[in-house]
C-alpha cells in the first residue's frame, strides 16, 4: 500500500481552481521534491498533506485511509520561517514538542516521563549538531542553527512524513550545503518519507529521489482562475547518474 494515494484531486478557493485533477501516489521512503512557478499551488498541496487544508474533491488517502483533517504528530512540517518560541531555550523548544504530544492539555510532563523527554530531546539536538547550545535562546543562534532547531522540533515527534516548505531558501550557500547533508542523513537514518517544496531546481534534483513539477497547462486570459496546476513532469531520480543525465537535458 502506498503511503499517500491521490486520485482525481481538485483544490479550489471560491472560483479559483488551484490544483486540477491530480492523480499519483507516494511510497514510504521516497524523498519527493516539488518545484513550479510561484502561485501554482505547491504550498497549498503541502497544507493539504499537513491537514491544514482539505481537498475540494477527489480521493486523498494516507496509509489507505482518508487523510486526518487536523495536523498530527505523524506529519511534521518545517517552514522557511522558523516556528520557534523565542522565550524558550533550544532544549525547551524541542522538549515542548514531546510534552505537547504526550500531554496535549497540560503541555507538561513530570518525573520519569520528563526525564525521558529530556534525554530524547538532547539526543535529537545532538543529531542535528546543536548539542553544545542546549541552553541558548533562538535569538542567539544563526539562521542555519535556527533551521536545525526547527528540524529537531519536527523530528523529535517521530513523524512518518516530513513536510519541508522551502526550508533552506533563506540560508547562505555554504550553510545550505551543510543542511542538505544533514537532511539526507536524517532522512536515511529515520526511515522518513519527505515531501519538500523548493524554488531551487538544483536543490530539487540533488536532494530528491523523485522530482514533481507543478504547472498550469491551460491558460485562458479571459478567465485566469479557471484552470489549476497539474503535475507536468514526474521524474524518478534514483541514482546520481540518472539525476545528472536528466539535469543535462533540461
Ligand atoms: N487561503 C486562501 N484563500 C484563497 N486563495 C488562496 C489561499 N491560499 C492560497 N491561495 C491561492 O492559491 C494559489 C496557490 O497558492 P500557493 O501559495 O499554494 O502557491 P505556491 O506555488 O506555493 O506559490 P509560491 O511559490 O509563491 O509560494 C494562489 O493563487 C493563491 O493566491
TrEMBL record:
GO terms for molecular function: ATP binding; ATP hydrolysis activity. Gene3D superfamilies: P-loop containing nucleotide triphosphate hydrolases. Residues 4-241 form the ABC transporter domain. CDD domains: ABC_NrtD_SsuB_transporters. This is Bicarbonate transport ATP-binding protein CmpD. The keyword Transport applies. It holds the Pfam family ABC_tran. The keyword Repressor does not apply. It comes from the Bacteria. Its EC number is 3.6.3.-. Keywords: ATP-binding, Hydrolase, Nucleotide-binding, Transport. PROSITE patterns: ABC_TRANSPORTER_1 (PS00211), ABC_TRANSPORTER_2 (PS50893).
Amino acid at each position: 500500500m502506498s503511503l499517500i494515494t491521490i486520485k482525481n484531486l481538485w483544490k479550489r478557493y471560491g472560483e479559483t481552481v488551484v490544483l486540477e485533477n491530480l492523480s499519483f501516489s507516494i511510497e514510504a521512503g521516497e524523498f519527493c521534491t516539488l518545484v513550479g512557478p510561484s502561485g501554482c499551488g505547491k504550498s497549498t498541496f503541502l497544507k493539504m498533506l499537513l491537514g491544514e487544508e482539505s481537498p475540494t474533491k477527489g480521493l486523498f488517502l494516507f496509509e489507505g485511509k482518508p487523510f486526518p483533517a487536523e495536523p498530527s504528530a505523524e506529519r511534521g512540517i518545517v517552514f522557511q520561517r522558523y516556528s520557534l518560541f523565542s522565550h524558550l531555550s533550544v532544549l525547551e523548544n524541542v522538549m515542548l514538542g514531546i510534552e505537547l504530544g504526550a500531554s496535549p492539555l497540560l503541555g507538561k510532563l513530570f518525573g520519569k516521563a520528563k526525564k525521558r523527554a529530556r534525554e530524547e530531546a538532547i539526543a535529537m539536538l545532538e543529531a542535528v549538531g546543536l548539542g553544545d547550545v542546549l541552553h541558548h535562546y533562538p535569538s542567539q543562534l544563526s539562521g542555519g542553527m535556527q533551521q536545525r532547531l526547527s528540524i529537531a522540533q519536527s523530528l523529535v515527534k517521530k513523524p512518518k512524513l516530513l513536510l519541508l516548505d522551502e526550508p533552506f531558501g533563506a540560508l547562505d550557500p555554504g550553510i545550505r550545503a551543510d543542511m542538505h547533508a544533514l537532511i539526507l542523513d536524517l532522512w536515511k537514518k529515520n526511515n522518513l518519507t519527505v515531501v519538500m517544496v523548493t524554488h531551487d531546481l538544483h536543490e530539487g534534483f540533488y536532494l530528491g529521489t523523485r522530482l514533481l513539477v507543478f504547472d498550469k497547462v491551460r491558460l485562458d486570459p479571459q478567465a485566469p482562475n479557471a484552470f489549476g496546476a497539474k503535475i507536468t513532469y514526474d521524474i524518478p531520480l534514483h541514482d546520481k547518474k540518472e539525476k545528472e543525465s536528466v539535469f543535462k537535458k533540461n
